[in-house]
Amino acid sequence: MPRGRVFTNSVHRERVPVPGSNNCVGHETAAAVFVPAGVRSLTPKTSAVRLERTVLTAVSPDGTRVFGKKASPIKMKRGALEAFFKPTAAQAKKPKYEASLEKSTHAAYPHPIPHLPLPFKDQLGFVPAEDGKVLNQELDLDLVYYQPYIPSAITAGLFKFLRQELPFYRVQYMIKRGTFETQINTPRYTTVFGVDETSRFAPDGSLVDSKTGRPIEHRRYTCTPRPTPDCLDELRKITEGTTGEKFNFCLVNYYADGQDSISYHSDDERFLGPNPAVASFSLGARRDFLMKHKPIAPSASGPPVAEPKALKLQLGSGDMILMRGTTQSKWLHSIPKRAGVDAKMGRINITFRKVLVKGGTENYYQYNVGSGGVFRWNVQAGKMVAWEGNSSAHPDDEGSVSNVNGNSG
Ligand SMILES: O=C(O)CCC(=O)C(=O)O
Ligand SMILES: [Fe+2]
């Protein structure tokens, strides 16, 4: 019998109702008391709730699931089981993932985008890999920190998969500084998918009005919104389930090395509504995520309020932070440039957000896709290269000024 062929290690997941899904009270009404799945609070009052239970199973050739150790129908010598599941030399040489043959397609995608490889999908059944810690000890801060959220077995593969399969852009745009127009070169690669609450994608990829279900009028958008490809939509749905939040936009940043960055900003545009929740994933190189409170204006009536101390989270591959409450309206965050050992490694950041109105859709496409060419990861070159047929792409970001998804320069 060839080793590792007869039994496959697979996961079985018992589901219980997840807040925010159809079988439960909507998160709008339950928001005040909802605790995301697997959240551990640092403040004693908040209780921890684990909403999902995972059970490891082995599947025998006839398809029978074998639950847990005791139920095992096979007897093996000590160590044999581990050897059994160890990849053979031939298997070990295989790439970390095999791209799925199924792909997401859309008229506004420059190329089809493969679905997640099945082993990655299976592993996403185990999220969050660690309970989230609530960081709310500082004034106006409300953040859940999952360290990590994505199981470590797939973080490297998922990073490579997304870097290789997504279309990226290096957006340039002009801003007015006084009477001068300045060109801004976004100091990182970006891409975006989704549409605001006023519209939704029909199964054929066309846009229909959310309320009437009828095709939208031609002039609703000057940009061309595109649906979130299946590979990112899987993660979006799972994130909604564990956080109780709803998301309709996915923004992706690729920091090629330590020179790529995002300057201090907050994601509190009006089109996100008050107290927006933003779920933010890290894959690849560890980078510092700096946070500082916005300046506090002295009040004429009350005593002076001390500014809370700045924070530094060293975000590792697979980590997720859920920023919520007043975090965006009162705090700023950034990923500064860095030198050193890790500085040559790339990092992917994925954020999920909920955009309420069409102005948000226009803004996100303008500043994360723009009007330049597509970049794709080139395995031979080991870097992003302008994708065939795109002559307007420009790899230079030297001396650029950071932008904030375009909203605060
Ligand atoms: O890369 C990160 O972790 C942060 C990205 C970010 O703040 C943004 O895209 O708004
Ligand atoms: Fe941000």
TrEMBL record:
Q: Where is the composition biased (Polar residues)?
A: 400-409
Q: Could you say which residues form the signal peptide?
A: none
Residue positions annotated to bind 2-oxoglutarate are N253, Y255, H265, H333, R347, T351, R353
The highest taxon in the source lineage is Eukaryota
Could you tell me which InterPro entries the record lists for this protein? AlkB-like, AlkB-like_sf, ALKBH2, Oxoglu/Fe-dep_dioxygenase_dom
Q: Where is this region: Disordered?
A: 390-409
Span of domain Fe2OG dioxygenase:
246-356
What are the GO MF terms of this UniProt record? broad specificity oxidative DNA demethylase activity; cytosine C-5 DNA demethylase activity; ferrous iron binding
What's one Pfam family the UniProt record gives for this protein?
A: 2OG-FeII_Oxy_2
Q: Which residues of the sequence carry a binding annotation for substrate?
A: D268
Q: Which GO terms describe its biological process?
A: DNA alkylation repair
- Cross-referenced PANTHER family: ALPHA-KETOGLUTARATE-DEPENDENT DIOXYGENASE ALKB HOMOLOG 2, DNA OXIDATIVE DEMETHYLASE ALKBH2
| Entry protein name | Fe2OG dioxygenase domain-containing protein
Q: Which organism is it from?
A: Lophiotrema nucula
Lineage summary: Eukaryota, Fungi, Dikarya, Ascomycota, Pezizomycotina
